[in-house]
Amino acid sequence: MKDRSRAYTRHQRERIIKKKVSILRDILGYEERHLPIRGTLSKGKVHCSCKLCRYEQVHGIPKAKHRVIWEAMEKEMDI
């Protein structure tokens, strides 16, 4: 494993926090005063259940890796 500098770690942490703040603000409609403390956003996932973020799940479309496995199983059964 490579040793990373503190600047790299700070950059990555800030990048993830910005992404999660934009999800909370733009998609879920949080106002500035209702956002959680910024440091808590780097510690876990922000789950978004909107139809944009969960398109495949909402419409029942299998993910590519599951579709490939399913097609391989069907091909094996035909042989």
Give a written overview of the molecule.
The structure is a single chain. The chain has 79 residues and is mainly alpha-helical. It has 2 domains: 1-47, no CATH class; 49-79. 53% of the residues lie in helices and 0% in strands. It has helices spanning 6-27, 55-59, 64-78. The longest helix has 22 residues, at 6-27. The chain is flat, with a radius of gyration of 19 Å.
How is the topology of this model organized?
Blueprint: H1 6-27, H2 55-59, H3 64-78
What's the helix-strand series? HHH
Per DSSP E runs of 2 or more residues, the count of β-strands stands at 0
Shape: flat
Distance between the termini: 45 Å
The biggest beta sheet reads: none
Poorly predicted regions:
none
| Radius of gyration computed on alpha carbons | 19 Å
User: What is the residue-mean pLDDT, rounded to a whole number?
Assistant: 83
What would you call the structural class? Answer: mainly alpha
Helicity, as a percent range: 40-55%
**Strand coverage percent:** under 5%
- H/I helix tally: 3
What's the number of structural domains?
A: 2
